[in-house]
Amino acid sequence: MNKKISTMFASTLLMVGAVFGTADAQVSKTVDLYNAGSNYYYIGLPVAAGQGSAAYLKAVEVENTVGANEGKTFISLEGETTVNQSEIDAYLFQIEKVSDGALVPTYYFKLKSKEYGTYVVFKGGSDLTEGSGLSATSLNLITAGDDENAVKTYVSQIGIDATLISPDKKKAEVEANTGMIFIPFTIAGDNANTNELKLEVTPELSVVASGSGTKLQFFGVSTEEVSASDLNGSLKNGFILNAKDVEDNIFADQTIKAFKVNSNLPIETGYTIPQGTYFATSYPKELAAANVAAISSADLFRQCTFIALDPVTNLNTKKDDAQKADQKAGKNFGLKLVDGDDFNFYTESDDDAEGYAEKISQGSQVSVYNAIFKVETNKDNEDKYSLTVEKFRYKKEADKNAHGEATVRVGISTINDKKVLATTTGDAQFAFTLGDAPVVKPIDLLNDSTASVYNIRFISGEKADSEKGKYLGVTVQTSGAYIFSAQGSAIAELGNPQYQFVISDVNAEDNEITFTNRETSEDFTCVLFSTDKENQYLVADGNSTQFTVANLTKDGSVDYASSPMNLEGTTIELTKATVDKFAGFANRSENDGYTFIKFALDNVSDDNLFMVVVDNGTLGSPAYDVKKATDKEELASLFELVKSEKPEYIRNNYAYEKDDVATIKTKADTVAYYTYAIKWINPELDKVYYLKDDLSLDEVSNDDPENADQFIIKENKDGSVYIVKDDKLANDGGAIVCDDNGDVAIDAVPYIIKDADAVKSYLSAEQLGASLEAKEQHVAFKSTTGGYLSMNEDAEGVVAIKTAADEDLTFWLDTADIDATLPSFFISKGVKDAEERMFMYFAEDSADYYINNPHYRFDNGSVKMIFKAGTLTNSDTLATTVNGKAVNVSVKPNADGTLGGLNNFKFQIFKANEGDDDAYVIRCKENNEYLTSTNGLLTLGNRADAIKVYAEFQEAPTANEGVEVAAIKVIAGEGNVTIAGAQGKKVVISNILGQVVANTVVSSDNATIAAPQGIVVVAVEGEEAVKAIVK
């Protein structure tokens, strides 16, 4: 190809130049020196027609080395035996006619080099310059050592033999195969130069005395056919043909790909797909790759859409005699798109053949010949191209169906005052130029500071099992190797990083863009062309990247295509992705509770297997593992997924725009995931066991999950998960899997797409009933077996028999975690004449600290449920005392002295769902253990032993919970607020910024509550809020 397109990307648009082949034949030609035009010619020794010359002139550049002209260059000539095909332009010259300026002029000619764009010069024998009255006795070829005076004698004109000039002086023809003597700078008179050029076959070129020179003749350039691959190379995988001033140009409406049929493809007797070059606007995936420019299958041909000459529509609608004559000749027909399966494939040319009249195309039928285009160019029309259809079959008469046949050109015609593309006859029209394809500048796809992350959807493809409509992702088809795959939306979860690509690098010079998969870091580099659709692009260069189409069949199985496709040649849509750095991986909260690990075909199947811990050891030496699943849900083991303190990260580079320049931020695009220690929940055991990555269970001292093996929980769109070894999130990864026989292993690859009938893993949360309504309220809890939950005189939680002392049986519930699926409550009782309340509390922390203190443990060692004095300052903090010191308690300790352990004060109250629709169970938020009763004493245990209670809602508090009074007063004091007449009501005090500073149910008729200096807002239950100024 021409050197102009050796560098494809030099600006925003793909720069296209000639696709003229480097080989060019020399055509012996008669040339009129007076009317040579702008055509180019070779010059050589005369030969018979059809033969190559024995020697040619070649332009050479001579750099002067002397004096004032040192470094300047001039053009001379030398001889060559053949035309060097890699330097063709050096052998080509334009002929320029010049006059001596006289009243009756004498004409000369000059040779202008195509390679250097300037004239060939010769050196005079004395001081001499061009013009009238000059004298010279001899001329010669120039040299690098010519001094300043010699350079002044340089001249370029060559004389025209008078015998060549026609009598009317309008022509001066140098005949083909004959030639003429070249005499530089000939003038009339005694001083005229008579030296002649002599070219020998050796191939020495010299200037010799008159009579010793050799005749030279002109050779025209040959017209070359442009190959399909060269056409497609102009845009790397296709081309566009522009036609000046033509608006409706079918060759520029879309990118075209040229295909060569190298030999006839038979269909049936008399019917073939003829050899030739065809222009396709769409084609199957098998033809999409940039290195594919030939069709060798009739089936593939029929799947294409082609441009063809329209045999019916004549663009000249005048219908006069001239129009009719033109139509008969095949002129003024337009073009159209034709599906490859809709052609008339009858190619017999003998009109005496049996059935010829019935089989040949007729009427509106389009002959396959109408789609065969010969594209030609030559050195006289460099960067311009002609189109010829050699067997155009068309309606010669508008009112008759019969088709004629003619060789026509496609060119620009003016019809009805409009420039159109139409058929014409006669000489070729070099009317077309290769169009520029709008290459996407990488910077146009970049954000100005953040990562540019896209979902990639395929627009190309026609059939349901093609890539059309599917999304690019990274999967594993065979363990050990990632592949790019195209999957439908039933599988591809677009919010997951597995189906998201970040622009990680760009090459602005070559317009190359590198897309990196955010989860696997697999990447590909491509060049994109824009299309007429927003956000849709043609992949012009995919750097050999391939992807495999994965189809979901009717039975739910995944069917991978038998062979991968080239990304190059496809059309994609880039949609900005929604980025959540934790997407695709479980990010469980502390409210998620315990879970079963279930193996099933889907998440709603009744035919389930469950992970179960089995002891394969001996008495006193247990050996637990989960290598065999059970189909009995009642035997299923319960697990707690203990989330790591900090997440792990997958980091990729990303490119962003800064001051109109693409800049790379290293390892800044992040995908995050937590790891989990999988804890076996078995309250009957004193020891704590965690799952190991070999599926055995290991005792972990101090119940520290950091000392246990870690697992990643990768989420799939269908709700299933992969539970993966911490270090095996890879193409050969180790994920837990269960087969149909219930055998559990840890060798699954988390990126293999599973069929619908494959057993998958699910996290099945422990089924919990509906929560008690998450609102502040007075409630008494009645045991289903009799008695009420209460607090005894030692502040211990007990089950009390209902007596006259009913006031001891009512609790106040404050809400917490109200946005959680399962909200929590603080359960408290008021204390007469005290601001503090008594909050139910699982005293494990205290029992562990005060080992022998009977206040915290029962005689059997169980930790007591006690009530502890405190004030709830807000839903996240409880003020109480520890070792006589006032402290704040929150969920986690803080550097300011706040203690952790607030979840020991939080309880979830939800339906038991075990045969009694009205019964509730109470579970501690800290450890998900349930309130149980042993001989009337409250502690925590497993669900099977949980005490079940009915909630009896109270409209008003009783006894020491307070009584209503006629009037409520708010009195501001120094550092406090006194509430009078609000016994049993909830009081919330907040500062002017809306921050709650006190939240309590007052237990006395004259309660004093600490408050900060300044304006506070006091809200008493059932009353309008009032403002007070605290001194």
Automatic annotation (TrEMBL):
<dbReference type="Pfam" id="PF19910">
    <property type="entry name" value="DUF6383"/>
</dbReference>
<protein>
    <recommendedName>
        <fullName>DUF6383 domain-containing protein</fullName>
    </recommendedName>
</protein>
<keyword id="KW-0732">Signal</keyword>
<feature type="domain" description="DUF6383">
    <location>
        <begin position="957"/>
        <end position="1030"/>
    </location>
</feature>
<dbReference type="InterPro" id="IPR045963">
    <property type="entry name" value="DUF6383"/>
</dbReference>
<feature type="signal peptide">
    <location>
        <begin position="1"/>
        <end position="25"/>
    </location>
</feature>
